[in-house]
Amino acid sequence: MSVREEQSQPAPVEGGSSEEFETERASATPKGGEGCDGCDHRATKPRRKSRLPALNPPLETTQHWFIEAITHPGTIESGMRKAQKIVGRGRVVTDGPILDAVDRMRIYHYAYRARLVECLADDYPTIQYAMGADRFERLASDVIDALPSRKANLNGYGRVVIDYLQRGPGEDGGRVPNRRFYADLARLEWALVEAVHAAPVPALDLPALQAIPIEQWGDVRFTPSASLRILRFDYPVNRFLQHFREDKVPSIPRAKTTATAVYRQGFAVWRMDLDLNMVDLLDALLRGETLGAALAPLEDRLDASHVMAWFMAWVRSGFFATVR
Amino acid sequence: MSARLGFPDLGIGIGLRTPHYRHILDERPKIGWFEILSENYMQTEGRPMMILDQIAERYPIVMHGVSMSIGSTDPLDTEYLRELVRLRDRVGARWVSDHLCWTGVHTHNSHDLLPMPLTEEALAHVADRVRAVQDLLGAPFILENPSTYVEFAGSTMPEWEFLSRLCENTGCGLLLDVNNVYVSSRNHGFHPHVYLDALPMDRVVQFHVAGHTDNGDHCVDTHIGPVIKPVWQLLRYAWKKGANASILLEWDAEIPSFDEVRADALRARRYLS
Predict the structure, then answer these.
(1) For residue B238, what are the contacts with CB-CB under 8 A and spacing of at least 6?
(2) Which chain A residues touch B42 with a CB distance below 8 Å?
(3) Greatest alpha-carbon span in chain A
(4) Residue A28 lies in a domain
(5) Cβ–Cβ below 8 Å for A67 and B106
(6) Average pLDDT in the B116-132 region?
């Protein structure tokens, strides 16, 4: 059986993030730096003070009003108007010495969206590049409105971009041009994030693999390392990402089935292109099948020496934690 | 009441930030301690924890959170709290702090430090939750005064009274952020000394100093740039009133080199003599 050239082991490429270490996620303030600088108010004198009656709703009602107002997808004025039904007619917050109540609320309204857009931009720098900053911000904003954060921790929030882009053509994400390309790219970038956060586990080493008697190979099962992700794509997104990292100004490619492994060794996250036979084999092993069962459907397509070479490379790359 | 609720004085520290990881691991710079943003090391078992484990072997660590949402009317997030305790125990954090704020309600999380209405109802609510957190921590919980940009029409007391009564009712400690006092004083039009004069200084376990953005008509707590002189002077003022606690510089935006951040933090010494 002959093996096509591209079935030989591709060289892995380092690149979990463009920085050596990922950037901060939790912080007291958005990294945009200027707080409400991006919003459009610049009050220079006090506005006319509100004459509405002061309200003191129960704490839960106050918080409900506040979150409705500041997370509103439109302006803070429209957010406060919409939230007013929660508390009735009157003032929940007061005018300040310079800013009026609306401008004070505007600071929170701006910060809410700015922080989450920034979080998604951190996780998806290649999508941001591919779309351009403005379109990415619109996408992120749509994602935030459709799938707001429900967890205390922002580390996992970025997953919502994949969920959004994988929605059907008739739903929100379906309106994004080149949606399937971006969905693939999102899956790759998110795998890099997951690899950063995966638990370190001792990797299976070559001597352990070589110690297995040849007659037992058909019965062995492999446990993957916690960081390993095997991804199939409809577009060559790993190449796109690599060109982006190399400042090569890539354009959106034509559809082509590709596959990539993402994994971490030590601090470094790596990407390795795979051919589809490799993916079939790895998928079966990751499902817990024995090596014999995993190889059976591929038997007439693969050469044993190449399979052995693949395993050597995969073990050297730390794909597997244990063999049993 | 012992000073700082019995917590140690760690001297001057800086917030642990990713651009400085390599420098800290390679150079082991001289600094009293590091404060971590707790959530950056939660929901992860990977690279952030691997680095933190190494740093915690060499430096005292204090945990500072932004997501407990102690003032929310949603139930306390027990999963979050259990993970917080596990992290505290893993890195040997000297104490655990968060902000007097809420971050979301009805499960919608803003991830911002939202202001509390300063009412009797809110005080009782927060006090109950602080007690629950302290039971879980087995130690006093430390609360930071936030920067705020609005005031509520229904508030019946100033923030300094709210915090003082909270300390008295629960035994919690204070993380006194003098930059936040400055920012809020500018936004709400009070004198920062009035704020500091009213706080129980023996409850101050830690100080924060930081830069902020002055937009003219309001200030925003951005943790950007060096600390301005009026903020250092508030540190001096509080210190002279008896709050001799550990000092921590936060620098979160446009972060310069470790040495530059450290140098700014050490400027605190000039204001403590």
Answers:
(1) B176, B178, B196, B199, B201, B204, B207
(2) 153, 155
(3) 87
(4) no
(5) yes
(6) 98
Residue with tokens 């794909």: A319
Taking each helix axis from N to C terminus, what angle separates B120-137 and B78-91, rounded to the nearest 10 degrees? 50
Dihedral-angle region of residue B106 (phi above 0 means left; psi in -120 to 50 means alpha; beta otherwise) = left
β-pair type (A320-323, B219-220): unpaired
DSSP for B112-159 reads: EEEPPP-SHHHHHHHHHHHHHHHHHHTS--EEEPPP-S--BTT--S-H
pLDDT of amino acid A2: 29
Q: Dihedral sign, CA of A112, A115, A119, A125?
A: positive
Which tens digit of pLDDT belongs to each residue from A25-76? 666 555 544 545 444 444 444 555 677 899 999 999 999 999 999 999 999 9
**CATH number for B222:** 3.20.20.150
CB contact under 8 A, A111 and B112: yes
Q: State the average pLDDT for chain B.
A: 97
Q: Would you place residue B86 in the very low, low, confident or very high pLDDT band (cuts 50, 70, 90)?
A: very high
In the block, residue with structure tokens 């991006």: A38
Give the closest of A59, A199, A227 to B73, CB-based.
Answer: A59
Q: How far apart are the first and last CA of chain B?
A: 25
Distance from the B210 Cα atom to the nearest Cα atom in chain A, whole angstroms = 11
Shortest distance between the Cα of A6 and any Cα of chain B, in A, equals 32
C-alpha triplet B153, B155, B156: angle, nearest 5°: 130
State which of A141, A160, A182 marks the end of a domain: A182
Return the pLDDT at B139: 97
Residue of B nearest to A54 (CA): B153
- What 3-state DSSP class applies to A290? coil
ipTM attached to this prediction: 0.96
> B170 falls in which pLDDT band (50, 70, 90)?
very high
Structural domain including A248 reads: 5-19+184-323
Helix, coil or strand: residue A322? strand
Residue B99 belongs to domain spanning: 3-271
Residue for token pair 């100004």: A249
Q: H or E element: which one contains A104?
A: helix A101-123
Percent helix, strand, coil in chain A, to 5, is 50, 10, 40
Are the beta carbons of A35 and B113 closer than 8 angstroms? no
- Provide the pLDDT for residue A301: 86
